[in-house]
Write a structure and sequence with these properties.
This protein is of the alpha+beta class. Among the domains are: about 10-30 and about 85-170, Ku70, Chain: A, Domain 2 (Beta Barrel); about 190-200 and about 250-280, no CATH class. The protein contains 6 helices and 14 strands. Strands 9-1-2-11-14-13-12-10 form an 8-stranded mixed sheet, with helices on one face. The termini are far apart. This is Non-homologous end joining protein Ku. With LigD forms a non-homologous end joining (NHEJ) DNA repair enzyme, which repairs dsDNA breaks with reduced fidelity. Binds linear dsDNA with 5'- and 3'- overhangs but not closed circular dsDNA nor ssDNA. Recruits and stimulates the ligase activity of LigD. Pfam families: Ku.
Length: about 290
């Protein structure tokens, strides 16, 4: 079993079949450098106190939760009152609907978790659901309560196990109109589209997450190591120490830029035959 502790234990249910499962976070905590705020004169970390205006610092046992229903007015709820709101989804994730594997817009996905059976006895039924989802190319949908919140969740096969993705509810997603309504729906020119499509095909390859590195986090870790070696002295980074990253040129001739990219990008800079900036500027909405 994994060394980490499960963040949720309960049942994965399909109709009358209930499988005891555990949930583990798929993302590693501590993978990126994290910083504390430090008081420079003493080198000690900054701490924050819970304070009330006109009262000052308060004890932890004096704090309860409140919902602001009007500006400055709160309805107060104790932990016992919140815990009394019993939800079936606290210990059960029931798959109530199935959708095509590609039907869910990526904007809805939030966090990923590994789902594993709790013991060998649960594994037989677990494998049945896993393989049925894979064979039908479906994703199971349900809800579960975790850490004081009810989540919409999608279950799909992943290797020999199952992956759970928490999803945003519809009301949590912004509408696209305010952002996209000013963008023209006019189709791209056929000759430009043909070259761009060929460029995409040329750069198409199987997905490999290991091919991409977080350059910023790597540079931060290197800075931290050098700072430790320097015994805290100030370090000045030089330009040649910066990681090499892809960079683009200002596009003057869109077709020439696309063709040059398709041919490897080693030719001379794009000419000025067809300015890509020749289109009139979009008028601001009144």
């Amino acid at each position: 079993m994994p060394a980490s502790r499960p963040i949720w234990k309960g049942q994965l249910r399909l109709s009358l079949v209930a499988i005891p499962v555990e949930l583990f976070s798929a993302a590693r905590s501590g993978a990126r450098p994290s910083f504390r705020q430090i008081h420079e004169p003493t080198g000690k970390p900054i701490h924050y106190e819970k304070v009330v205006a006109g009262v000052g610092p308060v004890d932890k046992d004096e704090i309860i939760r409140g919902f602001e229903y009007e500006k400055g007015d709160y309805v107060l709820l104790t932990n016992d009152e919140i815990d009394a709101v019993k939800l079936e989804t606290r210990k059960t994730l029931e798959l109530t609907q199935f959708v095509g594997a590609c039907e869910i817009d990526p904007i809805y996905f939030d966090k990923s978790y590994f789902v594993v059976p709790t013991d060998e006895l649960a594994e037989d039924a677990f494998r049945v659901i896993r393989d049925a989802l894979r064979q039908t190319e479906k994703v199971g949908l349900g809800q579960l309560s975790m850490r004081g919140k009810e989540y919409l969740a999608a279950i799909k096969p992943s290797g020999t196990g199952l992956m759970l993705e928490t999803l945003h509810y519809e009301e949590e997603i912004r509408k696209t109109d305010p952002f996209f309504s000013q963008i023209s729906g006019k189709k791209a020119e056929a000759d430009l589209l043909e070259v761009a499509t060929a460029l995409i095909e040329k750069k198409t390859a199987p997905f490999d997450a290991g091919a991409f590195k977080d350059h910023y986090q790597g540079a931060l870790r290197d800075l931290i190591k050098r700072k430790l070696k320097s015994k805290g002295r100030k370090i000045t980074a030089t330009a040649d120490e910066a990681p090499e990253r892809p960079s683009g040129e200002n596009v003057v001739d869109l077709m020439a830029a696309l063709k040059e990219s398709l041919e490897g990008g080693e030719k001379k800079k794009a000419s000025t035959k067809r300015p890509a900036t020749s289109k009139p500027k979009r008028k601001k909405a009144s």
